[in-house]
Specification:
Elements (H helix, E strand, L loop, with lengths): L1 E5 L11 H4 L4 H14 L4 E5 L3 H9 L5 E5 L8 H9 L4 E5 L21 E4 L4 H11 L8 E2 L1
Parallel strand pairs: 1-2, 1-3, 3-4, 4-5, 5-6
Helix pairs in contact: 3-4
Length: 147
């Protein structure tokens, strides 16, 4: 099973600044992910929480074969989530809807990315699909890095 974790405020898609996050809702994001998973026969679980502790608790269950995580704002300062990711020895991809390197300076640094195999940033909802593709059919000649 591939676990997909979405952190704080991701559930507010469609209500967040539309010029940054677009107009599609969190329900539409989930639908896109579930449809792709069904078409590709992938077992997934989508988990969302605005709480750092709940995200850590979910990571620590270690009942998945791969992890896709959008830590939201925790990306930039949660050493606790970073440490939980370090414990999970499965393939891990960090995903961001927006290009965090093209935004405010404080968003340029990810403390969680170093514990992931790669980062996908700036492709909107398609970033999750790219991550699912990579995890389900990893290329043999390339491991890790920024996708």
């Amino acid at each position: 099973m591939i676990l997909i974790i979405n952190g704080p405020n991701i559930n507010m898609l469609g209500k967040r600044p539309k010029d940054i996050y677009g107009t599609e809702s969190y329900d539409e994001l989930e639908k896109k992910i579930y449809n792709f998973a069904e078409e590709n026969k992938l077992a997934i679980e989508i988990f969302h929480s605005n709480s750092e502790g709940e995200i850590i608790d979910r990571i620590q269950r270690l009942d998945y074969k791969a992890l896709i995580i959008n830590p939201g704002a925790y990306t930039h300062y949660s050493y606790a989530i970073r440490d939980a990711l370090e414990i999970a020895t499965v393939p891990k991809i960090e995903v961001h809807l927006t290009n965090i390197l093209a935004r405010e300076d404080f968003r340029h640094r990810s403390v969680t990315a170093a514990c992931c195999n790669g980062v996908i940033s700036g492709f909107g909802f398609d970033g999750y699909i790219l991550a699912l593709n990579y995890i389900s059919q990893p290329p043999t000649a390339y491991r890790g890095g920024v996708l």
